């Protein structure tokens, strides 16, 4: 295990971007939960990102790339390693004709706005997904029958050996909420291709999607969206609701009364509260229906126990 002083030395001599020590991750997750990361790093540009990844890989420093932390449960003890944050510098969006290139640290929302203003249609159904472009690619985010893969052409990734790679959509073998991108590869940017669309109609479609979300989802409370993936032929929310678990609470973590597949932080929930509630839901749904629910949210800092 690399100690903190070594981590600082290893990174500080390799990179130019800002390094912050002991950054609380609760401020970077939509759950508002999570202990500190040993280091938080803003790469200055793609070369800096590559240099940082390479230095960490060579010296065995654990790395985690965060998007907007909207699908993430971070342990109360935090993360012993370096969190790479692309939200400061990897946010550019540019395009020509039907093609758009978006930095991985930018918001999916900003990409949708860019597209709507230019009549580039295809992602209207993704309105309201609060994550980054990179997180959306990694998880093949989607809603209302549409997914990121529908419009993805290719991604540029930074690799732990310091190189950059372009991977086509086919090479990513994207499926429901998963991508065959190696865990250590970092999406730096993504290229998409859209259809011509009417900006007014597209905006209206986005508004309709947002209204459906407001109606069905507990958006006024901290959460990480759907906790579990859809099991084959069913819905996690239906199973949890029919198991009578709406409102079930451990500490300040509660199964939402509005949408059973959301866990909400009703006050100052700890990561252990949320984790215990997830385990409880899985156990009870399995006992009742024989279905094993697979978490959709990602865990950080829990070791292999998650
Ligand atoms: C209210 C609410 C509603 C939601 N609705 C939806 C929905 O309708 N559909 C849906 O799919 N999701 C939904 N989500 C979940 C979440 O917004 C998506 O999964 C989103 O794609 C996560 O992006 P992020 O940037 O927040 O990723 P994070 O939570 O920060 O990270 C998630 C994973 O992606 C990885 N990652 C992030 N950036 C990169 C990168 N640049 N390169 C490589 N890996 C990276 C992380 O390492 C981590 O493993 C919702 C969440 C909330 C809070």
What do these coordinates show?
This protein is α+β, with helices and mostly antiparallel strands and 306 residues long. It folds into 3 domains: 4-85, Uridine Diphospho-n-acetylenolpyruvylglucosamine Reductase, domain 2 (2-Layer Sandwich), CATH 3.30.43.10; 93-215, Uridine Diphospho-n-acetylenolpyruvylglucosamine Reductase, domain 3, CATH 3.30.465; 218-305, Uridine Diphospho-n-acetylenolpyruvylglucosamine Reductase, domain 1 (Alpha-Beta Complex). 29% of the residues lie in helices and 25% in strands. It contains 8 helices and 18 strands. It has helices at 4-12, 46-59, 108-118, 133-139, 169-172, 199-216, 236-242, 271-289; strands at 18-24, 36-42, 63-66, 72-74, 79-85, 93-96, 99-103, 120-121, 142-143, 146-147, 152-158, 164-168, 186-193, 195-196, 249-250, 253-255, 263-265, 298-300. The strands form 6 sheets. Strands 6-7-13-11-12 form a 5-stranded antiparallel beta sheet. Strand 9 (142-143) and strand 10 form a beta hairpin. Helix 3 (108-118) runs antiparallel to helix 6 (199-216). The protein is globular and about 55 Å long. The model has no long low-confidence stretch (mean pLDDT 96). The protein binds flavin-adenine dinucleotide (FAD). Flavin-adenine dinucleotide binds at residues 30, 64-72, 86, 104, 129-132, 134-136, 138-139, 141-143, 186-187, 217, 219, 223-225, 298.
């Amino acid at each position: 295990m690399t100690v903190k002083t070594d981590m600082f030395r290893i990174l500080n001599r390799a990179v130019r971007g800002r390094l912050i020590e002991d950054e609380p991750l609760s401020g970077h997750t939509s759950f508002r939960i999570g202990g500190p990361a040993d280091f938080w790093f803003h790469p200055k540009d793609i070369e800096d990102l590559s240099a940082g990844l390479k230095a960490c890989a060579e010296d065995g420093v654990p790395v985690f790339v965060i998007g907007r932390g909207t699908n993430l449960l971070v342990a109360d003890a935090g993360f012993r390693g370096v969190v790479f944050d692309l939200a400061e510098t990897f946010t550019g969006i540019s395009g020509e004709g039907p093609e758009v290139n978006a930095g991985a640290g930018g918001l999916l929302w900003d990409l949708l706005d860019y597209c709507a203003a230019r009549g580039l249609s295809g992602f209207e159904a993704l309105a309201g997904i609060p994550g980054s472009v990179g997180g959306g690619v990694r998880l093949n985010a989607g809603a209302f029958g549409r997914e990121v893969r529908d419009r993805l052409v290719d991604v540029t990734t930074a690799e732990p050996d310091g190189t950059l790679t372009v991977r086509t959509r086919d090479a990513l073998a994207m499926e429901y909420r998963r991508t065959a991108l190696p865990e250590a590869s970092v999406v730096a940017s993504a290229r998409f291709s859209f259809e011509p669309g009417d900006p007014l109609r597209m905006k209206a479609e986005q508004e309709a999607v947002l209204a459906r979300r407001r109606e069905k989802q507990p958006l006024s409370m901290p959460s990480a969206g759907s906790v579990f993936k859809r099991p084959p032929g069913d819905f996690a929310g239906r199973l949890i609701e029919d198991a009578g678990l709406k409102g079930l609470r451990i500490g300040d973590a509660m199964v939402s009364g509005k949408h059973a597949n959301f866990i909400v932080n009703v006050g100052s929930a700890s990561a252990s509260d949320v984790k215990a509630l997830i385990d409880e839901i899985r156990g009870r749904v399995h006992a009742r229906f024989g279905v094993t629910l697979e978490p959709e949210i990602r865990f950080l800092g829990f070791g292999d126990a998650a």
